[in-house]
Structures are given as structure tokens and as C-alpha cells.
């Protein structure tokens, strides 16, 4: 599902909890797919059949339990039937903005999988996903939010080019997977051939961002963070 884009056959982090759960790159070991935070209970207590109208109705429900159940249903089917789950993207985005909801990790996982399937369908939600990652950099859902952004940036870097400053908080996250996935997303945005990041209105200085990336490249304990921070720094124009 994840596009190769400019990263060849490399794969991103896909598990914030364990590097062993990540898909290894078949040629060189580098990582270009963000970490997946799929809940091990996602398949429990969900219908074996995916009924999109019923799921969408549950997502619109006022009952939080019904909404969580709908998210679990999508999560249980998104790997095998992502195309069937695409219509739920706008509603998932709305749930991501709900601070009172207790299933942000599952929502972020679904959005990341759906962005890998169809970045064009998730790109209109990029601003809300970026905001979540910037405002809650060490939340368990942020790694998958950044994985989602990396998938969007692979095909629609223009959707993020004006928000690169918002990548600073996840680059400073306590979570290695969030840092790695944020650096990968930033590398893909910085590689956008038609625009220059220093021309954006929101980024005061690419030098400041380069300094942060250079520090991560030099000192971060996670090798994937170091690799992608270096690539992002090199690509900043």
C-alpha cells in the first residue's frame, strides 16, 4: 500500500513499540515507512462484514462507545479493504480533533493506512493531522500521524509545504518512531521540485530547522531518525 516515491524500495518505521515489528528493507536496511501502531485488539468484537453505511452512521453517533466501535471496525478491515474505508476519512479526521476521545491511536493508524492507499483522499485532512502532531508530539498516536503525513508528502508534498515549521515538535518527540516518521515526511516535502521551503510564509528560517536536523543526525540514539534527519537536512534548499 505504501508508495515507494523517491525512496525506492525502502520502508518506513511501522511499529512504535518495537523495531523488530518494522518491515525491513530488502536492499540496504534503510527505513521509509512510518511506524505502525496497530492495536492488537483491533479485530476483537467487530463484525466480519464491513458495512460502510452502518460504520459511517456510528462515526456520526453522539455515543462515544459507538464511535470507538466504528473506528475499531475500520481498523480491523483497513489493511485488507482500504478502498472500502476511504469514505470514512473526513469523519476520522473529525474524531482526531476530539480531545475527549480515547481512540486517537486507532484513528491515526487508520488515516495512515488510508493515506498509503490514496494520498489524494487524505491530503485535504493534512492540516488537522499536522496540528495534532505539533500539539501532541509525544502522544502515542503521533507516530502514525507522521506516518500519514509521510504518505501524503510522497504524492502531495504541496499539501504540507506551508506547514514544515509544525514538524519541529514531533522531531523533538520522546518517541523515536514519531521523530523518524516526521523526519521522513519532512525529507519528502523538502524534495518538492516546484517550490522552495524558504519562500513559505510560516517558516522563519530554514537554518534553524537544519540545525535541529543536524543535531538529530549526529546524536539521536535511533538509527532511522539519524538517517532521515540527514536526508531531510540535505534536501532543504
TrEMBL record:
<feature type="compositionally biased region" description="Low complexity">
    <location>
        <begin position="18"/>
        <end position="33"/>
    </location>
</feature>
<dbReference type="InterPro" id="IPR016024">
    <property type="entry name" value="ARM-type_fold"/>
</dbReference>
<dbReference type="InterPro" id="IPR011989">
    <property type="entry name" value="ARM-like"/>
</dbReference>
<feature type="region of interest" description="Disordered">
    <location>
        <begin position="216"/>
        <end position="237"/>
    </location>
</feature>
<feature type="region of interest" description="Disordered">
    <location>
        <begin position="1"/>
        <end position="47"/>
    </location>
</feature>
<protein>
    <recommendedName>
        <fullName>HEAT repeat protein</fullName>
    </recommendedName>
</protein>
